[in-house]
Write a structure and sequence with these properties.
22% of the residues lie in helices and 36% in strands. It is of the alpha+beta class. The chain binds biotinyl-5-AMP.
Amino acid sequence: MTDATPHAERPTAAGAPWRLYESLPSTNDVAREWLADGAPDGAAVSATRQTAGRGRQGRSWEAPEGALALSVIVRSVVDGLLSLRAGLAVAQVAGSSARIKWPNDVLIDGRKVAGILVELVDGAAIVGIGVNVAVDVDALPADVAERAGSLGLPAAEVEPLAERLLAAFDAALALSPADVLAQLAARDALTGRAVRWSGGEGVAEGVDEAGRLLVRGDDGEQQALDAGEVHLL
Ligand code: BT5
């Protein structure tokens, strides 16, 4: 449980409730409590700083001053493309140079400016999105700073960007799987890159409608791989 109270509460563009906090341990955890309390589809929690942000597989996510941490409760479209739908939304608000690196990163000039963590709870999803909106990358831990980037916006832009991101995510949820994949293809950071998995090596060739990475093995066969099975070479 968190004792924090939002500094503001207002509707998203789609009319769902949105609770805005200054600082939280993790917006995904607050969203999870709200979900258990019956939060409606599209309900959102945001913070401009996180003290215990989570990445995937037990990794941590740094969200110091100038960060946006946003979690959206999704009850309507819970499919294997959710993380990519969120990535498309981030890329749209981050600008034309933003690229999506399957399964959950958004890069600018090869540097990670955003990460996405989708958690499934009782048939609903909590889509957590961390964006370095105004983060001073050099102030991140050295190993993170090495690969991180920032949108380089002023701190006053964090909440306005969150509002645009929520609207873009709503639009991305309305896309058909085929349209998600078409939009991804225009922003895909992985296609053509060499990858390795437990069964072999090959080249990334896009994503399928279940959200799996398509790879062409050195044997000429195409396979679909889940996140966690693949390493970039
Ligand atoms: C992710 O995990 O990229 C998912 C991050 C999701 C964060 C959001 S914020 C809102 C919501 N609430 C939460 O508690 N979490 C979500 P993963 O692919 O496992 O990447 C984690 C790795 O990214 C770390 O091990 C670092 O190497 C790197 N990293 C950590 N903080 C970063 C940052 N601010 N910018 C760029 N890279 C970072």
